[in-house]
Amino acid sequence: MKVADRYYIREMNENLVLEIIIQQGTISRADISKLCGLNKATVSSIVNNLLEKDLVKEIGIGESSGGRKPIMVTFNEKAALSLSIDLGDNYLSSILTYLDGTIILQKNIDEIIINKRTVMKELKDLITYYLEQAPHTTYGVIGICIGIHGIVNDNQIVFAPYYNFEGLNLVENLEKVFTIPVRLENEANLSALGEKIFLTNVPNFVSISVHTGVGAGIIVNDELFRGSKGYGGEIGHMIVHQNGRKCPCGNRGCIEQYASEKRLLEVYRKKKGQKQLTFEQLILDYKNNEQEALDIVNTFINYISISVNNIFTAFDPDVFILNSRFTSDIDGLVGSIKEKINNKMNSDTIIKSSTLREKATLLGGVHVNSTSFLDIKHFSFQNMLSDSSHPASK
Predict the structure, then answer these.
(1) Distance between CA atoms of 377 and 338, rounded to whole angstroms?
(2) Phi and psi for 386 in degrees, rounded to 5?
(3) What whole-number distance in Å separates Cα of residue 92 and Cα of residue 255?
(4) What class has domain 200-353?
(5) Which domain of life is it from (predicted)?
(6) Domain-by-domain residue ranges, the chain?
(7) Are residues 103 and 362 in contact, defined by beta-carbon separation less than 8 angstroms?
(8) pLDDT tens-digit series, residues 236-284
(9) 367 pLDDT above the threshold of 90
């Protein structure tokens, strides 16, 4: 066997062992051997190598089923840091975490102008802030993941309807300044990944994200579905009204122009004659049974129920997760959406509101950064949810 082949096999085995340690939480070398099929000597050598790399740590003695008690090992989530940024059309939301998503720092910047001229300065200032505040770890910040409200393919922005970055290479420019890998991903895709690794232990589900636009992160057989060019899940551009409202994508009548938080708030402001009216006020007016607000929320219910129905017929997921301030802030709204869906085929499909809310996208960035750094495919920290300090448990 060639040296390169032996190195490749050892690298694959090391990734397999690390993945098992992460999934199991705490485990002995003997049990790793049973789960992965490698002999004990090979596993012991790999674990020792991971200890030297500071990616795992020994945490004490386990119970014995006969013979010497085993030394237990666990993943060292504090070996490195991950930076996640949600790049909205007028805001930056961000968290600095350890590799398991435990938040160290977070910063939200609202009501700013994001365009081709301003975005680099805003991102540079934000990243510099985190690097200056970051605690010391073995590997430092190993990745910056940026959630884009638009279509991403091959780590480039293909189309973003609400900010024009044409000709601007975010990845190249930021990596030149900070020498840290920068990864771009669609915001709704990241939201689905966040739900997947922290909360949703099902192989097929769809996370519908309704914020500036409307998008869907689609998980099929435990894998994120992107499509051939990154357009998978762009449900906001399904046409629901022929010759309807004009959309930045070039079509007319896209569902995004009728159901997004951004669009519905614009409609409500116009109805009330108040240009500065907030989303929070819209929700409060709804709870006070003001008719204009009731009409807006009913519009949301109608169009999201159409989206759920159409996606179901295409993908037949086990679960739908709705991530929107509408469903998070209004009790019973998910039930109202489900009542609108009369398709007998999906009567048993689970529809629920996201409990991660705005953190889902940012925690999805942890998945992207950590799996790339650790060179592993499957990444789940659901075994940590009993820890009330973890963001996914709140």
Answers:
(1) 34
(2) -75, -15
(3) 25
(4) alpha beta
(5) Bacteria
(6) 3-75, 78-192+363-373, 200-353
(7) no
(8) 899 999 999 999 888 999 999 999 999 999 999 999 999 889 999 999 9
(9) yes
Contacts of 373 (CB under 8 A, 6+ apart): 80, 82, 99, 139, 142, 143
Query: 389 vs 25, 53, 172, 200, 351, CA distance in Å?
Result: 16, 26, 35, 19, 27
What SS3 state is found at 246?
strand
pLDDT at residue number 385: 44
**Token duo for residue 154:** 């091959």
Domain 3-75 part of CATH 1.10.10.10: yes
Mean pLDDT of 46-66: 87
CATH entry, 78-192+363-373, from 3.40.50.720, 3.30.420.40, 3.30.460.10, 3.40.190.170: 3.30.420.40
Determine the Cα–Cα distance for residues 295 and 285; give it in Å rounded to an integer. Answer: 11
Q: Where are the alpha helices (DSSP H) in 86-229?
A: 119-133, 170-178, 187-198
Rounded Cα–Cα distance for residues 324 and 326 (Å): 5
- pLDDT at res. 124: 97
Tokens at 46, concatenated: 């790999």
